Amino acid sequence: xxxxxxxxxxxxxxxxxxxxxxxxxxxxxxxxxxxxxxxxxxxxxxxxxxxxxxxxxxxxxxxxxxxxxxxxxxxxxxxxxxxxxxxxxxxxxxxxxxxxxxxxxxxxxxxxxxxxxxxxxxxxxxxxxxxxxxxxxxxxxxxxxxxxxxxxxxxxxxxxxxxxxxxxxxxxxxxxxxxxxxxxxxxxxxxxxxxxxxxxxxxxxxxxxxxxxxxxxxxxxxxxxxxxxxxxxxxxxxxxxxxxxxxxxxxxxxxxxxxxxxxxxxxxxxxxxxxxxxxxxxxxx
Length: 285
Ligand code: SIN
Description:
By secondary structure, the protein is an alpha+beta fold. The protein has a single domain, classed as Double-stranded beta-helix (4-Layer Sandwich), CATH 3.60.130.10. The chain has helices at residues 8-13, 31-37, 39-49, 61-71, 139-144, 148-156, 181-184, 222-236, and strands spanning 16-17, 24-26, 51-54, 72-75, 90-94, 119-126, 134-138, 158-162, 190-194, 196-198, 205-207, 214-217, 242-245, 252-256, 260-264, 273-282. Strands 1, 2, 3, 4, 5, 6, 14 and 16 form an 8-stranded mixed sheet that branches. The protein has a 3-stranded antiparallel sheet with strand order 13-7-15. Strand 10 and strand 11 (205-207) form a beta hairpin. Helix 2 crosses helix 3. The chain is globular. The chain starts with 7 loop residues before the first helix and ends with a strand. Succinic acid binds next to strand 6, strand 15 and strand 16.
């Protein structure tokens, strides 16, 4: 209990669970107030529940930056220089006439970087009337459902993560505003990370290989890796590991990439969807 009388348990009791193993939805809490006055409890709730949803929030750039900075080091997304005056805030914008969607394949954000973000903050600026959900999978629960042999293999084996696995040569990701020179030059990023990783703060292991970025296991060819990777990518999508976040304008969601994978659902052709995103390296790791 802190000086303002709010414990983690009482904070969590004000929220509705999203799924049996992850996610809490707050309808009557100001995220900015929690950041200022109950940061420890907020942070513990995020680490324990992996994803927090806040409705009817102030989603101004100034507010988003303030919240993100309290969580840790706000990272620059290499492919977009962000919105005006806020280089760390990336606008993900799908126009009514666009067919494809940004982040439509299951992934963990920016795992092709040597230091990928721990947290992502996503704020809904303009949502379709229906659809445009983001689906999440509990990669820790999915890991715990694997055989002991597979768990040991994944914790000991490295894999290769690349930024352009699904990107045609010479084609930049659409839906981003203000491309960086890196994006214009079609440069891609790659990194090696373990195929499953223990969370730095809780020690809980999670499947880290993800469909959008993982090309192969480091000690195997792409062809040799494919059957195991495809098994894992399918395994992660089992109903009992997944849940959908339904957006409304001015919803803010923060999630822990070390425990979850996600993708955006492409089912709202003809409508505009605009999101503001920040990626963060935890200040507590
Ligand atoms: C993302 O993967 O970063 C964005 C997800 C979304 O737009 O729902």
